[in-house]
Each structure stands twice: as C-alpha cells, then as structure tokens.
Amino acid sequence: MNKVRLIYLLLAAVILLVAGCGSQPIARLDDSGIDYASIAPYKIGVADSLSIVVWRNEELSVNVPVRPDGKISIPLIGDIIAAGKNVPQLALEIEKALDSYVRSPKVTVIVTAATNAEYLHRVRVTGAVNSPISVPYSEGMTVLDLVLQAGGVSEFSSPNSTKLYRKGPKGMKVYPVYLNDIMRKGDLRSNYDLRPSDVITVPESIF
Hints:
Blueprint: H1 2-22, E1 49-54, E2 62-65, E3 71-74, E4 78-81, H2 87-98, E5 107-113, H3 115-120, E6 123-127, E7 133-135, H4 143-149, E8 162-168, E9 171-177, H5 179-185, E10 199-202
Parallel strand pairs: 6-10
Antiparallel strand pairs: 1-2, 1-5, 3-4, 6-7, 8-9, 8-10
C-alpha cells in the first residue's frame, strides 16, 4: 500500500513539474534590473487628508486637509507646510515645533485620503488605440490589461513598436513592448506588470 501511494505522489510531482515548465509567466521589469524597493516613499500633496495624532494630547490631535497653498493648521503651531514631504518628515517637523509646548511630544501622521496620489499614480495609454485612457493604477495590472481597457489598437497602429515609459530613481526609462506578439501570438515576454505613473504609447504605422 505504501509503495502504491509513493508511486502516485511521484506521478503527481512529475505532472506539476511539466505543467510549470509549459506555462509562460507574465514579464516583470525587475528581471531587467529595476529595483522596486528603491521606489520613493509617498509624498503628501495638495487635497490629501491627514490625521495628526499627538500622543497623550487629544486636544492637539486633528484631522486636516492639505490646503491649495500646501499647508495645514496645527493647534499651538499654526500653519506648517505639508505638501512635498513624506509622512516621517512631517511627523518629525511637528514634533520639533511642539517641543516648546509639550514635553517629549510623539506625533503620528496618517494619510487618510490620498487624493493627490490617485492622480499621480494613474497609468495611461496614448497613441494609436481606439480610446486613449488614464485610469487609476491597480495591483497586478499588465500592459495588455490597459490596452484592452483602451479598446485595443486602431487599424493604423504599429503594435510591435509600442513603448512603455517609466519614471525611476535615475530618470525616465523606455522599454519595448511587442504588443502584436502579445495579442496575436500569446508571447507574454513583454507583457510587463505595470507600476504607478507608467505610460504606454502605441505609434501609428508609417505605411
């Protein structure tokens, strides 16, 4: 009985191995040297909503929007610039400003509504597609997902000349996307996972 069970287990392992070898994984640009860990932390922007919590000082804790001038108002401190700073930077600045009024202040800043991020993190597809679009980024979205949302390519497009533009810590990088191969041949090697702020451009054919 044990031998039969062992044979079944070995057969199952072989089947899984063959199935794994035959599948074609979605491309990821980190395989090309992109360090996703290096992506800059979120910076607070105009229209974001913040929760400022001062430990053991509820009267100083507030929920505030970032005004068009980039500032927020904090009790005792008054106006302080929030836009352009990340959460730890703003918390530290508030702590330093409160130090004259509160003994060893501990401040926590929480972005409760990243309205500004929704715009900055959108992904876009332009050029020879049926409906150029700009949509909120979603985890797991790929090049093909975005092109399909745009209604596919137009009859005058040159799909295999498509480019993916991505901002990184060292500036803009451009990656070739073989969109015709993705859509007609099922070749997913350039069907990259998207990142916030990515732009896909499908050029028109010159013929």
